[in-house]
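Form 7-S
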Amino acid sequence: MRELIRPGLRRTTATWLAVGICASLALVLGLGYRVVGEWRATANSFARHRAEENARLLATALLRDMRGAQELVLDSSRLFAFVLQPPYDVRNEAAGAFARYPYPESFFLWRRGSPPAEMVFFNRGNRRPAWMDTADDATRAPVVIEAQPEVATQLLSRIMTDVERRRSFAAFETTIGGTPYQVIAQLVYDRVGDDLTAIVGFTVNLQWARQYYFPEITAQVARIAGERGSASLAVLDERGTRVAGEVATPRGETVRRSFALLFLDPLLVVSDPPPDLPVYQWAIDVAIESDAALATAISIANRVLAVAAFATVTLTLGLVLSVRAARASAALSEMRSDFVSTVTHELKTPIASIRAIGDTIVSGRATGPVLVECAHMAVQESKRLTRLVDNLLAYSRITDVTDAYLFEPMDVATLVQAALEGFAWQLRDQQFAVQVDLPPDLPPIHGDRTALRLAFDNVVDNAIRYSSDVRSIRVTAAAGDRRVEVDIADSSAGIPAEELAFVTRRFFRGRGARTGGSGLGLTIAQRILSDHRGALTITSEVGRGTTVRFTLPQA
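Output:
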């Protein structure tokens, strides 16, 4: 009993051990994947946060700088310097504003009572407006004081509409000399607030700002942001066209912030926007870029995780194969244990029968017909014992594959007749209906007589062992294509379809087997047929019987 329990216990232990190891490996791999995933998510979150900070940095720089000239000159004490001082003294104030902010192209001043032609323009000496028709100043002073009656008339005509509406400022977009400009002006009234005293303002060349101003300030901010890591920034116009910077990211993921193209405080135009001041919404795009060192570390971690996953899968596969081998070994051990028990019983039974027959004869109790019957029984039991020993010897030869056959031509009818005669007493005692239908012109086969006799004996023995209430054996044969096919059909209980593929395996015995047997008969028969370059085919139907076909080469 202990021998039967041990294989099952080993099989169960190996299975649970493999399950535990696989579960542990899966847990470790899952934890590693989760850690790397969280690390990657943290890195992505950090990259997005840094991109948002860079976008905020550029947006803040633009908004502060674009309203800086208006706040510095028009909303401060400098305004009174422009209004009260002579033009040549005002030039110093303009020079200071030009030095700090690059986008104003001209400051202009008009005082009450002056004709439009007397509007004074304070232009950059190194970047005079194209519409200024006076000759260049050879001295190239930082600020050039000039007049342009046509432009002055154009500006005053538009600004006066805001004066009529009692606005404190004027902001509008206009075209001067074919170039779009944004004009910002402060309207200065007397203390009563009824009469206009002066107009102070500046002009912004939008084409120049697009070509030079935005690229320069974007590059400055990119350098500052780049000190904290890689940064790709871009400024896009209202149509999405890139104006400045460069966004380079394979995945195309960016952080975007919008801003208004206004060179003044945007709050001044929120409540009462001028009709001729289009508020273009431009955008800042900042690429979400991971830190190079962090990206390298994540890449290495991903490769390590991939190697670990491959190793885990390989180890799991190895464990599965090991468990299958252990289970197969345990099953084989169990079948061998059952085989030893069965063979021991099969050996003892004929030996005990022969001994009992011998005791009966020696005691003198067997005389006449009884003596003859005892002799028949002794011969049958000796044949049974011989057949069992032959199967065991054949099994040992199959195991180490050292058997050598003696091939010769032989008659199928003679071989079948010899096999049936070996079971004549059992067939007659159990009242089997035996039918042999062999063609007279059946060609001889080529094989080893002893081996083929053993194969036929095993099949006939199975037919007798597993017979049902209707007992019959029918042997037929046919020739064709250099082959001879011999069918041995019985009326046994039949073999279930799910067991049919296993009946030729060593030590296999079906669940419904009611009698003894070594489980080697069909295994040995199949090996013998295979060694003869033939085949063994089994068809069966439960409740109807089984047919075993021998296919052998002709001589």
